[in-house]
Design a protein that fits this description.
mainly alpha, 2% strand
């Protein structure tokens, strides 16, 4: 019982570590919500940006936006010491204080990046094969399909999350106490990650080889149009590739840690609980950092995003000035 009470207090203690986490989460939430909302607005309001690639990037931004809205909730509720009981506690655990919604949005991001890699592969390496080419009319179905499949992948998180009265907090499949009892979930996640990673690796290997090594991209076009098309396709390929690499760098530490915890003896978890708690919080934070990075990748690598951001901001400024003048 002593171990349980001490371990439980880590989640509602205003320790320097937890306070630092709150500050860091506040920063990425403000930055990420602002950046991702701008990406969505730019794609939605700019006709020239309404392409399959940008729609998929906007879908990633929407998933990141939701992730950032939800990410501080478990930490803040734990530190506030709020106690909820009964059926309401289980409901709150499944949708708010657990990480089931995060599982959904992370799955949406991963599936969107996979579809994006396939779309870039067909647009750059196989431009004359229109069978699997994505068009704007098809994108609504593709995006809907991504969210449906992601919801199916996330069902174990919603089903297995529950409120534990003894600990006084939510236990979801990713908590230190519960990971060892659902090893099958982590094994399936690892298998799925290998499958999608293989698809991503193949697509980007062929894209980068075609652009930088074989230089077979746009080989049938005129010299002037070829140069402009290659330049634009390089930018789009590098943006999608950078976003994918950043996703892996931020997500893999969390996946590796959870796999380690799942196969670690429970007594070893109890004996090293405080240290494991800190690692658990850190890798979880790193995973959320990815949600605020993507707008910077778009801005640094794409002149179209920068120009349309300036246009969007200038338009709002003009509207604001005209409304003042009318008064």
């Amino acid at each position: 019982m002593a171990n349980i009470s001490v371990n439980a207090s880590l989640y509602n203690s205003l320790s320097p570590f937890n306070v630092a986490l709150v500050v860091l989460y506040s920063i990425i939430v403000v930055v990420g919500l602002t950046g991702n909302s701008l990406v969505i607005a730019i794609v939605y309001k700019t006709r020239s940006m309404f392409t399959p690639t940008n729609i998929l990037l906007a879908n990633v931004a929407a998933a990141d936006f939701i992730s950032l809205l939800w990410c501080p909730i478990p930490l803040v509720i734990g530190l506030s010491g709020t106690n909820i009981s009964g059926e309401t506690a289980d409901y709150v655990s499944k949708f708010f204080t657990g990480y089931s919604v995060t599982c959904l949005t992370v799955s949406v991001t991963y599936l969107s990046l996979t579809v994006l890699a396939v779309e870039r592969f067909h647009a750059i390496v196989k431009p004359f094969n229109s069978a699997l080419a994505l068009t704007n009319n098809r994108m609504r179905y593709v995006v809907g399909f991504i969210w449906i499949i992601a919801a199916v992948f996330s069902l174990p998180g919603f089903i297995l999350s529950e409120y534990n009265k003894q600990l006084g907090r939510c236990l979801d499949p990713w908590t230190l106490e519960k990971a060892g009892s659902i090893k099958w979930l982590y094994v399936l996640s690892l298998i799925a990650s290998f499958f999608f990673s293989g698809c991503l690796f193949y697509c980007y290997f062929q894209i980068l080889k075609g652009i930088f090594i074989n230089r077979t991209v746009c080989s049938a076009e005129t010299v002037s149009s070829r140069q402009s098309n290659v330049k634009e396709k390089r930018k789009l390929a590098l943006i999608s590739f950078t976003v994918t690499v950043a996703y892996y760098l931020c997500y893999l530490p969390f996946l590796v840690f959870e796999l380690y915890i799942a196969f670690l003896p429970y007594q070893a978890i109890l004996d090293n609980y405080e240290d494991l708690y800190k690692v658990y919080r850190i890798v979880g934070f790193v995973m959320y950092v990815n949600s605020c990075l993507n707008p910077f990748f778009y801005g640094f690598q794409s002149s179209n995003y920068r120009k349309n951001f300036i246009r969007l901001f200038a338009r709002k400024t003009k509207l604001g000035n005209s409304s003042v003048t009318c008064r």
